[in-house]
Amino acid sequence: MKYEIEIVSDRPNLWKDGDPVRPELGVSYKTYPGRQVYGLKDEAGEYIAFCCVARTWDVPQDIMSLSRLTSEDGSVYVPYTVWSLRRGAGKAIINELLREVRENDLGIKRVVTLSPRTEMARDFHLRNGAKEVSSSVVTVNFEYPISEEVISEAG
User: Fold this and answer.
1) What's the whole-model pTM score?
2) What domains does the chain contain, in order, with CATH numbers?
3) Radius of gyration (Cα) for the chain, nearest Å?
4) What is the pLDDT along the chain (155 residues), one digit of tens a residue?
5) 17 C-beta neighbours (distance < 10 Å), count
């Protein structure tokens, strides 16, 4: 399936009420300089997934450190919330973000999530090719390789 990813930070009506992972974080947090919201569209042009990403200069251990470390020119790309409206769309949006990082010189050296400490998040990221790199009481960091081929969409 052919997908299209785009930055939708300036269209919060599309995503502001849909985040089941971090609903407490509002529009101003998710659109602060250095943070963006991406939307993934299917072939029909319908949004099927969203992902909030921050650029940071180090790997955050929680939302407070994500706030402190956010930098418009940070070299760590941190997906901190992902949600899908269709089965498989979460994996697809992560793959499209990784493709963007790999194919464009964005100054990104690492892609490391700030994930909730849940079995669902753990299974999702490990199944998609990430490795657990650290954890805290409430979050886990999974790192995606950015120098390898894009993860297969078949699995």
Assistant:
1) 0.90
2) 4-144 (3.40.630.150)
3) 14
4) 789 999 999 999 999 999 999 999 999 999 999 999 999 999 999 999 999 999 999 999 999 999 999 999 999 999 999 999 999 999 999 999 999 999 988 899 999 999 999 999 999 999 999 999 999 888 999 999 987 544 444 33
5) 8
